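Class, look over these C-alpha cells:
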Amino acid sequence: MHGEESAKYEGPVAIDEKPAGNMPYNDMTEDGSSDPSDMEPTDEDWKTMREVADALPVSAYLVILIEFCERFTFYGLSGPFQNYVQYPNPPSYPAAQPGAMGRGQQTATALNTFFQFWCYITPILGAIVADQYLGKYRTIVLFACIYLCGLLILTLTSIPAGIESGAAFPGYVVGIIIIGLGTGGIKSNVSPLIGEQYRSRTPYIKTLPSGERVIVTPQATYQKIFNMFYWGINLGSLSAIATTELEKNVGFWAAYVLPTIMFIPGIIVVVSGRKLYISAPPRGSIFLEAGKLMFMSLKVKGGMDACKPSVLQDTHPEKMAAVTWDDVFVDEMKRTLKACVVFCWFPIYWLCYNQMTTNLISMAATMETGNVPNDIMQNIDPIALIIMIPIMDRLIYPGLRRVGIHFRPIARIATGFFFASVAMAYTAGIQSKVYNSPPYYNYPSQGDGPNYISAGYQVPSYVFIAMSEIFAAITGYEYAYKKAPESMKSLVMALFLLANCFASILNFALVSVTVDPKLVWLYTGISAAMFIATPIFYFCHHKLDKTDVEQDAIGRRGSVADAYQQNHVYAAEYEADAKNVA
C-alpha cells in the first residue's frame, strides 16, 4: 500500500501490507545517527539496563472496550441462569426466590454446565473461520451478529407473557446455543486481535525523559497488553451484580435486557473502528499445510527441521513437489506445538478455578450471609482482580525488572498453579470448619437454614484464585498469542480455551463427591493434584523461559534493521492514514 493507494484504504490493516509497530522510527542514537543496528541491545545492555513495556496504540484500547462489552453481556446473562431454570415463576416481584420454569436443580445444573462447555468448544469453529477464511475482524463482526440474535431470542421469551405461554424453556435452549456459538467466535479472535495491535517483534533501546536508557521489549509489552485485557474482562463480569438484583426485584426480562443493550455499543465500536485495527489476513489452506508438514515430519528422519525446504532440496529432492511451506513456517509450527504441550496442564488449573462458580456458591448457601445473596459472593474474584492487576502491572512487574528479575511465562504460570492449590487447600479448611459448626454440622445442605459460620471466611479463597489468575490465566492468554504463528493465532488461542472443556469433564467425574459430608475431600484432592502438578510442570518446561525472547523473534518481519527502515519508509503515509481516519 503505497502512494495514491493509501488514500483509498478501507478496512482492517493487514500485517503483510503495512507494519504499524511502535518502534520509534524518529528516534536516533546518542551520536545522532539513525542506524538501527546501534539501537539493538548488546549482551552488556541486557545486563545493565532494565526492561520496560512500550506504549500501546489506540486500537488496542478499542479491542479492550469490545471485550468489556462482550463480557458484560456474557456474565450478566449467565448470572441468573440457574434460578431462571430451577425455580417456578413467582406470583409477583420483588420475589423472595425468583424463577421462571421450575425444572429443578438437576436440569438447571445440566443446562448451565452444557452452556459453559459449549462456549469453550465453539472457539475452535471461530478460529478456523478467522484463520482460513475471513480474518479476525470480519469473523468478530459475523459472530457478533449471531450473538445478538441469541440475545434477542432469550430476552423476548423471558417476558412475563413468554413465561406464562411456555416459551421460556425452548427460547432458553435455542438462545444459549446461539449465544454460545457467538461468544466462541468472538472469544477465539478478540484476544489475538488485541495482540496484533502491537507490531514490534524485536527489543530496542530507548532513552527516557529522565535520561535513563532502557530496553523496550515485546515480552514486557505483551505482558502489559494482556494484563489490561484481563482487567477489562473482570470489569465487565461485575455486571452479574446488577442482573441478579434485577432478577430478584423486577424480573428476568429486565436482567436480560440490560446486557442485551450493553452488547450494542460493542458492535458499534467494532464497526466504527474498522480502519484502525491491524489484522492478519486469512492464509487459506493453513490447516492442510500444517497437516502435511506434520505427516512428512513422521516420515523423514530428523523431524520437522528435516522438513525445511532448504534441507529437503539436498536430502529428499523428490519430496519438494509436495512442499508448500518455507523454513520460517517450520520454526513457527515447532513453537506452536511446544505451546500446546504447555496448555495440557491447564485443565487441572481450570478445575480449581471452576469451583468458584459452582461448589463455593453452594458452600456460601450453607453459611451466614446476612442480606447478601449467596451467588453474589463470586464477584469477590473480579473485584480483587480489578484492584490487583494495575498494582502488578505498574508496581510489581516493573519493580522486578528494575532489579534484574525477568519473570518469564513458565515461571509465572507455575506461580499461578501454586496459588490455585493454596486456594483449594484453604477452601478445604473452611469446608471442614462449616462441618464442625452447629446446628447441622456435616449435613448443612439438608437443614432449614445455614450453619452458624460467616460466609466472610470465603473471601481469601476468592482472593487466592484471583492471584492465581494474574499469574496463570493472563499469562496463558499471552503465551497462546506469542507462540502461535501469524496465520494460526486464533486456532492456538482456541486450543488454550479448550482446556476449560476438559476441566468440565473432570468436574463431571467428581460429581459423586460433591455432596455432604465429602466436600472436604473434594477440595483436598483438587488441591493435592494441583500442588503435585506445579513442580512437575516447571521441571518439564522451565527451559522454555531461557529461549522465550529468541522464540518470540521467529517470524516474517525481518531483522531489527529491516523493521526500522520499514518504519522510516511508511512513517509519512501512516500519519496520512491517521489523518484520513480522523
Observations:
- The CA atoms of residues 216 and 435 lie 53 Å apart.
- The first strand starts at residue 51 and ends at 52.
